[in-house]
Amino acid sequence: MTHNERDKHLAMSLNRREVLTRIGAAAVAFSVASSTEVKAGKPPPKPILLENGGFRYECIHDWLTPPPDIEWGDTHGIAIDSHERIYIAHTVGPNSRKGDAILVFDRHGRFLKSWGERFRGGAHGLDLRRENGREYLYHCDINRKVFAKTDLDGNLIWEKGTPTEAGVYKDGAPFNPTNIALADNGDFYVADGYGSSYIHQYNIKGEYIRTFGGPGTEPGKLQQPHGIWVDKRGSEPLLVVADRANNRLQYFTLDGKHVGFVTNGMRLPCHFHVQGELLLVPDLDHVVTILDGKNQVAAQLGDGRGMPEMRGHPRSDFPPGKFIHPHSAKFLSNGDILVVEWVPIGRVTLLRRLS
Fold this sequence. Notes:
mainly beta, Neuraminidase, five-stranded antiparallel β-sheet
């Protein structure tokens, strides 16, 4: 991706440039030695520990790294299959010799393979579902403004663009999908997070069902619905949306009716994952939040709010134990957490659960 293309990418929708303005960059410059640097003859650095609300983790930055012929771009999405293989979606760095936007690792963090050059420059939302005994990946591409379904080897099943059936994309209204939520009945929901702030529902065949949401601040309206998830922790499944530019989560029934908001602890929520009663919320404003079964804040981890803006800095400037811009995150089966961040040199951090 050229510098001009990257600038254009940063200028989209309430955009990330505006997001960064909201977060604010201090005028102070400082440098912190990399947590992974070990000088000859000196003992290894002490583990980085994160603790909040009774949750304790060892923080291991750059737990996943690309092979030599691939350079991270913005690391955006993560999915995990039934064999605990980890799939990372990234935009691909400008100096990368290969253009593969999907990298696959085993559960120990070892690189296995890569594919997905079609998503180079735009790989964003990524999730996975088992259907009729096979697993499939659902992708959102913010460069080509499409969403797609592939098998686990990258073979394309289908790809779709602007849902003209919705009747809301007239007079040049933009469409740019950011994430997809997957329901047990086979339906899926596409969040138009960088376009016109609608949610579109489809069945398992990719056939259009309905549209709801749209730009605004009132109940049922959205502003940059960046992440989306089917939350099954309650008595009935509900659709939870990371209503990012409204600084809140918003809940809907599965047929699109507004249910309520969650505002406590929310800054610029990006996406979700559920494990047991816990809802994991990576937040672009420097923190990873865990909500309990009542959607109260149970922990906030790696809070870097108030530090100088690090996005364009070299890796050596990143403060150990602080998040820059968490963009997506997943619980592993053992309770560990993987966090991917929106930084142009990519970063995947493992939070190893201690208690």
